[in-house]
Amino acid sequence: MNIMKKRFNFLVGAVVGLLLVVTGRNVNAQAVSYYPWNSILSVATNPTKVVWGDFRVQTNSFTSSLNTETVLMVNVGYTRNTNIYVGGGMNFGFVAAALDNKPLLKGYSASVGMRSYPFEKMPKVSINFELSPYVNSDGQSGLIRSWFGLGYHFGGK
Fold first, then answer.
1. What string of DSSP letters covers 21-80?
2. Cα distance between residue 74 and residue 86, in whole Å
3. Residue 124, SS3?
4. What do you get for the CA distance between the two ends of the chain, in Å?
5. Residue 63: closest CA among 90, 20, 95
6. Contact yes or no for 41/61 (Cβ under 8 A)
7. What single-letter DSSP state applies at residue 123?
8. 108-146: per-residue pLDDT in tens?
9. Most buried of 85, 119, 135, 141 (most Cβ within 10 A)?
10. What's the pTM?
11. Which of 139, 116, 130, 123 is nearest to 86 (CA)?
12. Burial of 63 from C-beta contacts in 10 A (0-12 / 13-18 / 19+)
């Protein structure tokens, strides 16, 4: 591995560490969401705070292509029952990097989304929708992802 790759991997690790520090000193799950059409399980810090973090894992993939994503979000708007947010993050292939000697960093994402709490009798349940442009780390290809799912906010709305 050449020196540039080592420096890049160090930079990626530093950014991931910074994301964890910025989102809270006592990082613990405040919300869990599932996006069934994308098979993504999301564990987030408190999504009602101004700045929050989200850790996403694919749930139906082979081990060698198991992707994880860390995202830093900022709430930019609130209504009575909805949080509107923007953010960005990085997608990693930890298992493929360890087992198949593939690059650790797979790509970058941006996010624009909302978490709505529409159920009066179940105020901790959210409906989540997000648009997330994604580009591979080599910059050669990308796509626009759309996510729709359900969440549960342990701390309440």
1. HHT-SS---SEEEEETTTTEEEEES-TTSSEEEEEEEESSS-GGG--EEEEEEEEEEE-S
2. 6
3. coil
4. 47
5. 95
6. no
7. T
8. 999 999 999 999 999 999 999 999 999 998 889 999 999
9. 85
10. 0.78
11. 130
12. exposed
Q: What's the rounded Cα separation, in Å, for the pair 16 and 27? A: 13
Side-chain half-sphere of 62: how many Cα atoms within 13 Å?
5
Torsion-angle region of 139 (φ positive above 0: left; ψ -120 to 50: alpha; else: beta)? left
For the chain, domains (ranges, CATH) are 3-153 (2.40.160)
Q: Cα 71 to the chain's mean position, in Å?
A: 4
Query: Are 126 and 87 in contact, with CB atoms under 8 Å apart?
Result: no
Mean pLDDT, to the nearest integer, of 84-94? 93
